[in-house]
Structure formats: C-alpha cells, structure tokens
Amino acid sequence: xxxxxxxxxxxxxxxxxxxxxxxxxxxxxxxxxxxxxxxxxxxxxxxxxxxxxxxxxxxxxxxxxxxxxxxxxxxxxxxxxx
Length: 82
Ligand SMILES: [Zn+2]
What we know:
Blueprint: H1 3-12, H2 49-62
The structure holds zinc ion (ZN).
C-alpha cells in the first residue's frame, strides 16, 4: 500500500528505478538500460517520465500490486498482449 509513496520517493532521486525493467518509449532504451538523452545519447541519471508511465501501466497490466494505481487508462489501448 506504500506504492505511491515509494514511487514518489523514487521520482525524486531515481537511481535504480524499477521502471528500468521496461523499455523506454521515449528514448527507446532497452529494458534495464539507462535512459539516454535524445541529443548526444548520453546516459541519464533519471528516467523519462514516459518510461515511468509505461512501467506503471505494465505493473497494472500484470496485476501485481498496482490494481489500485491511479492510472487513467481510457480503455484497453494496448490491445492486450499476453
Ligand atoms: Zn528514456
């Protein structure tokens, strides 16, 4: 139930964010690979917000512990890949 708090803490100073487990839709970093800046391709210390969003949805889709996550999903836009 402390997921939101944890997430917020991680957003503050993200070093090893669990969102790394998914690929970044923004910079296309592979899973477990750090995000890179668009310009020079340098590693970022943080993660792109889009990646965190993707991870949150991933968690919600996997139904682990985020079933109460306040993620606004207007319908199943992802098509349901299993
Ligand atoms: Zn990224």
